[in-house]
Amino acid sequence: MKNDSHILVADDNRGVLEALELLLRRHFRQVTLIRNPAVIMSAVADGRPDVVLLDMNFTSAFNNGNEGLYWLERLRATYPQLPVVLMTAFADIPLAIKGIKAGAADFIQKPWDNDRIVEILIAAASKVRKHRDVSCSPVMYWGESDEMSRLKDLVGKVAATDATVLITGENGTGKELLAEEIHRLSGRAERPMLKVDMGAVSETLFESELFGHRKGAFTGAVSDRKGKLAEASGSSLFMDEIGNMPLHLQAKLLSALQNRQLTALGSNHPVSFDIRLICATNRNIDAMVADGAFREDLLYRINTIRLHLPPLRQRKDDILVLARRFAAEFGTRYRGCEMSLSDSAANRLVGYHWPGNIRELRHAVEKAVIISGSSDTLSASDFELSTVASVSPEIPKAAMTIEEMERQMISEAIDACKGNLSAAAQQLGITRQTLYNKMRRYAL
Ligand SMILES: Nc1ncnc2c1ncn2[C@@H]1O[C@H](COP(=O)(O)OP(=O)(O)OP(=O)(O)O)[C@@H](O)[C@H]1O
């Protein structure tokens, strides 16, 4: 039976590629071959292979392994979980050691032994399959602002503990990526982190999603189903949009966390579970507690460590650092070379308000790379930034659209009420739910 893995082979020798294709297709579900190393990053981004088999000696450039090492480092930086097995035509042990030190999973010499190469690739693939969910997930760039340096230090201290973590921050500030980073640095990283998004699950299914159900527990429960708490046992569970959880379920979750036991819907038998819980919200959870919309005792439970990701507009030092990383990443993916920013583009990005935070910046750079001309430098005109989003308090009201004015009024009301959303909603003459909806819409 074939191994259920996808192997990407990068070698500029046609004969080698043909021989490896014949061999590997007999043993692996999918084999992708590339001759030009310059497309390796985009081939990995698009094909999501489980293992890369990388030649060290591309004849197009050098013959001393430098090019292979260069691509190995690039792959390790962008896809740290992806195993890279190196190949060399020369019996060059120092080079092999260099490669292994740089993070290669293993090393093969040409001419290779068929059984040995298959064995090595299967071993490398089995390691990554444990990480399949996160193997190609984007890397978190920390930036250079003081806020992010402090946060990085704190994460370094808490990641290895089993402390529950609450991550707060506006939409797109990287809460999920930070949760993945914490999990990656924890003792539970061998197993993938599981995620449950309380903003995406319908309220009727919240309970079953978390606790699971027995067949027949409710109409439509046609078979037993494990909930996320049980599924994530032994690993970490990322609970996104925790502020969306209805009160009755908050009580059930609190009791499950306290007793480390859960009871599936339709069952009378509590079962033990062991998770590291990482929660996130873009809401003002303290204001929700003050309003009675979130249980204070549950907040204490999930809040052992609170990490706040500031909006991008409050850490302007990070904008260009991140933009340059994205330009390098997407330039390599779409154009085969890293791209840079012109001075005018850099000024435009720093001057923008980034209401969608890093998600918006990432998309803006990706789009700019795609639509830009042949130059490898992105100019200000390559960036299409939303005008609604760029509203700043200095703009006179007469020059604003209705949406811009509404956003500003909401923002001012929340500030005036010191984050108390009930009071802000009252001041604005709308319900709290409408206020939440508008905050979400305007990324406040
Ligand atoms: N520090 C970072 N480095 C690199 N990419 C980042 C960073 N932070 C966020 N991103 C990217 O921005 C996008 C949004 O990130 P993420 O989903 O983690 O944000 P979020 O705060 O959880 O968003 P939401 O609240 O909308 O769910 C993703 O594509 C992610 O890869």
Automatic annotation (TrEMBL):
SMART domains: AAA, REC
A Pfam short name: Response_reg
Domain of life: Bacteria
One Gene Ontology molecular-function label: sequence-specific DNA binding
Transmembrane portions of the chain: none
Biological processes, Gene Ontology terms: phosphorelay signal transduction system; regulation of DNA-templated transcription
Positions bearing 4-aspartylphosphate: 55
Gene3D superfamilies for the chain: 1.10.8.60, 3.40.50.2300, Homeodomain-like, P-loop containing nucleotide triphosphate hydrolases
Residue ranges of domain Sigma-54 factor interaction in the record: 141-370
Record's keyword terms, sorted: ATP-binding, Nucleotide-binding, Phosphoprotein, Transcription, Transcription regulation
Residue ranges occupied by any Response regulatory domain in the UniProt entry: 6-125
PROSITE patterns associated with the record: RESPONSE_REGULATORY, SIGMA54_INTERACT_3, SIGMA54_INTERACT_4
Protein name: Sigma-54-dependent Fis family transcriptional regulator
Organism: Paramuribaculum intestinale
